[in-house]
Write a structure and sequence with these properties.
The structure holds 2 protein chains of 2 kinds. Chain A is mainly alpha-helical. Helices cover 75% and strands 1% of the residues of chain A. Chain A has a domain of 163 residues: MetI-like fold. Chain A is built from 13 helices and 2 strands, in the order H-E-E-H-H-H-H-H-H-H-H-H-H-H-H. A two-stranded antiparallel ribbon of chain A has the order 1-2. In chain A, helix 7 packs antiparallel against helix 10. The longest helix of chain A has 41 residues. The model of chain A has no long low-confidence stretch (mean pLDDT 88). By secondary structure, chain B is mainly alpha-helical. Chain B has a single domain, classed as MetI-like fold, CATH 1.10.3720.10. Chain B contains 11 helices and no strands. Classes of the chains: A mainly alpha, B mainly alpha.
C-alpha cells in the first residue's frame, strides 16, 4: 500500500501543490519565475478577456453536456427496454468506442466534416452543386466532437439506474391514471437523476478542460481553458498565470462535483421517502 | 398491442440512430485506410499500400516502439502497486475520505492540469525529460485504474480464508500466492490490460513530460502532429491499427472481468 501512496503523493499531490504555489508568484521578465508573492494571476483570470474564454468554455461544455445527456439517456432507456439477454451486448457496443484512442475518434470527425468529406459527398450525391459547406473549424464541430467522445459514459451512467427500475412502479402509476408522459416525468425521471447527474458531470468536467478537441476541430479559432493553459506553458511562457488558470479549472471541477453529490443525496432522500410511503 | 408495437419501434429507432452515430465515423475512417487513391476522402479502389508505407516510415516505427516501452513498463509498475493498494485498502476496510480522494483523483483530474503539474515538478527538480518521465507520469493514473478494478473484485472476497491460511501456518507471501492471487487474478489481468490501453492512447501528459526530440516521441504525439498537418490515407491506416489494438485489449479485459468495467 505504502509504495502506491508514496507514488501518488510524490507525482500527483506534490506537483499539484507546486502548481498552486506557482500561481502566487510573478512571471519573470525573461519568462522565468520571480519568487515574489502576488495575487495578480488570479486577478487576471477575471480580466474580461480571459473571463470571456471561461464563459465561452462553459457554454460549449454545457451545450455538449445537454446534447450528450439527451441522446445518452434515450439510448440507455432503449437499451434497458431491450430483451434482457441483449442488454449487455448493446451496452458493450455503446461503450466500446470510448476505449479507442481519443485523438483518432476526434480525427474521424475531421474526415467526416472537411470540405471534401463524407457529408459534402452525400450532399453532392443528392444533387447539391454549390460550394462545399464549411463545417470543420466551427463551434458546432467542437460540440459534435465532445458529444461523440463522451456519449458512451452518459449511456453507461444512465443505464445503471434505468435497469434497476422496478417496472411495477410505472405500471402502478399508469393504473392510477397517469399518462405515459406524467409517469416518465414524475416517476421514472426522478428515480434516475443520480445517473443523469453522474453522466452530466463527467461530460462537463472533461469538456471544459479539453484541449485536443478545440485544437483539432476548432482549428485553434475556438479557445477553451485547456488551450489557454497549454499556451501559457508552451508558447507564452507565463507559468504562474497558467498555474492560476489550472487552479481555476480545478475549482470549477470541485464546484460541479459538489453540486452532483448534493443532487445525488437529494435523489436518494426522495427514493427513501417513496419506499417508506410504499411500505407504510 | 398497437401502442406496444409503436414503443418497440421507437426504441429500435433510437438504438439504430445512436449506434450509427457512434460507428459511422469510425467505419468511414477504417474504410478509407484501404483506399487506393491518395485523396484521403474519395474512394477509388481497394489497396493495402498505405499499410505497407507505414511499415517503411521510420518516424512512426520509432514512435510505436517508444509507446510500447512506456506502456509495458508503466503497466507493470502500476499493476504491482495498484493491486497492493487495492488489497491494503480493502483488507483494512477503512475508507478514509482523504484516502478515497487520493485514489480517485488521478481518474478525474483534467489531463492538462496533471500534465502542467508534472512539467513544473520535473523542471523544478531539473529532471531530464524523456521516456522515463512519461513512465513516471503514466503510472499515476494507471495505478488508480488498476486499483479500482481490483477493488471491485475484492468487494466480494471472503477474508476469513486468508486468516485460515495464516492459522494453518502459511507465510504472508504463500497466502498471497496461493489464496488471494488466484481469486483476484482475472481482475489484475483486466486492470493491467486497461492500464496498457490507457497508456498506449494517452497524449497530453506524454506530450508535456516527453521533452523535445524524436527520441521520446510516442505514437499519439506522432499522430497528433500528423493530424495537424492534414488528412492522409497513411493516418487512416495507422489509426485503424491503433484502434484494433486497443479494442482487442479492452475486449479481452472485459471478458476476463465481466461486469466490472461495465459498471
Amino acid at each position: 500500500m505504502a509504495p502506491a501512496l508514496a507514488w501518488l503523493t510524490a507525482l500527483m499531490v506534490v506537483p499539484c501543490a507546486l502548481v498552486l504555489a506557482l500561481a502566487f508568484f510573478r512571471r519573470g521578465i525573461y519568462g522565468g519565475i520571480e519568487y515574489t508573492f502576488t495575487l495578480e494571476n488570479f486577478g487576471l483570470v477575471f480580466d474580461p478577456l480571459y473571463a470571456g474564454i471561461f464563459l465561452n468554455s462553459a457554454r460549449i461544455a454545457g451545450t455538449a453536456t445537454l446534447i450528450a445527456v439527451v441522446i445518452g439517456y434515450g439510448a440507455a432507456y432503449a437499451i434497458a427496454a431491450a430483451p434482457r439477454r441483449w442488454q449487455p451486448v448493446f451496452l458493450f457496443f455503446a461503450v466500446l468506442p470510448f476505449w479507442s484512442n481519443y485523438l483518432i475518434r476526434t480525427y474521424a470527425w475531421i474526415v467526416l466534416l472537411n470540405r471534401e468529406g463524407l457529408i459534402t459527398q452525400l450532399l453532392r450525391w443528392f444533387g447539391y452543386t454549390g460550394e462545399p459547406p464549411s463545417m470543420l473549424y466551427t463551434e458546432g464541430a467542437v460540440i459534435a466532437g465532445l458529444v461523440y467522445n463522451y456519449l458512451p459514459f452518459v449511456v453507461l451512467a444512465c443505464y445503471a439506474p434505468l435497469s434497476r427500475l422496478n417496472p411495477e412502479l410505472a405500471e402502478a402509476s399508469r393504473d392510477l391514471g397517469a399518462s405515459a408522459m406524467t409517469t416518465f416525468r414524475r416517476v421514472i425521471l426522478p428515480l434516475t437523476v443520480p445517473g443523469i447527474a453522474a453522466g452530466a458531470v463527467f461530460v462537463f468536467v472533461l469538456s471544459i478542460g479539453n484541449f485536443v478537441t478545440p485544437a483539432l476541430l476548432g482549428g485553434g479559432r475556438f479557445q477553451m481553458i485547456g488551450n489557454l493553459v497549454y499556451d501559457q506553458f508552451l508558447t507564452a511562457n507565463d507559468w504562474p498565470f497558467g498555474a492560476a488558470l489550472a487552479m481555476a479549472l480545478i475549482a470549477i471541477m470541485l464546484l460541479v462535483l459538489t453540486a452532483q453529490s448534493l443532487a445525488a443525496d437529494r435523489a436518494a432522500g426522495r427514493i427513501a421517502e417513496a419506499k417508506g410511503a410504499a411500505d407504510g | 398491442m398497437n401502442q406496444s408495437f409503436a414503443r418497440t419501434f421507437g426504441m429500435r429507432t433510437i438504438l439504430v440512430l445512436v449506434f450509427a452515430f457512434l460507428y459511422i465515423p469510425i467505419a468511414v475512417l477504417v474504410a478509407l485506410s484501404f483506399n487506393q487513391g491518395g485523396l484521403p476522402t474519395v474512394w477509388s479502389g481497394f489497396s493495402l499500400k498505405w499499410y505497407a508505407s507505414l511499415a517503411g516510415n521510420a518516424a512512426i516505427l520509432s514512435a510505436a516502439l517508444n509507446t510500447l516501452i512506456v506502456a509495458l513498463v508503466s503497466t507493470a509498475i502500476a499493476t504491482l502497486l495498484g493491486t497492493l493498494l487495492a488489497i491494503g485498502v480493502e483488507m483494512r476496510r477503512q475508507y478514509g475520505r482523504g484516502l478515497e480522494a487520493l485514489i480517485f483523483a488521478p481518474m478525474i483530474i483534467p489531463d492538462i492540469v496533471l500534465a502542467i503539474a508534472l512539467l513544473s515538478f520535473f523542471s523544478l527538480l531539473d529532471f531530464t525529460l524523456g521516456l522515463h518521465t512519461i513512465i513516471l507520469a503514466h503510472v499515476v493514473f494507471n495505478l488508480a485504474f488498476v486499483c479500482s478494478v481490483v477493488r471491485a473484485r475484492l468487494k466480494s472476497f471472503d477474508w476469513s480464508i486468508v486468516e485460515a491460511s495464516a492459522d494453518l501456518g502459511a507465510s504472508a507471501l504463500t497466502t498471497f500466492r496461493r489464496v488471494t492471487l488466484p481469486v483476484i487474478l482475472p481482475a489484475v489481468v483486466a486492470g493491467a490490460l486497461l492500464a496498457f490501453t490507457l497508456s498506449v492512447d494517452e497524449f497530453i501528459i506524454a506530450f508535456f513530460t516527453a521533452g523535445a526530440g524524436r527520441a521520446s516521441t510516442t505514437l499519439p504525439m506522432q499522430i497528433y502532429s500528423m493530424i495537424r498537418f492534414g488528412i492522409t490515407p497513411e493516418i487512416n491506416a495507422l489509426a485503424t491499427i491503433v484502434m484494433a489494438v486497443s479494442i482487442t485489449a479492452l475486449t479481452l479485459s472485459q471478458r476476463l472481468n465481466r461486469g466490472v468495467i461495465g459498471q
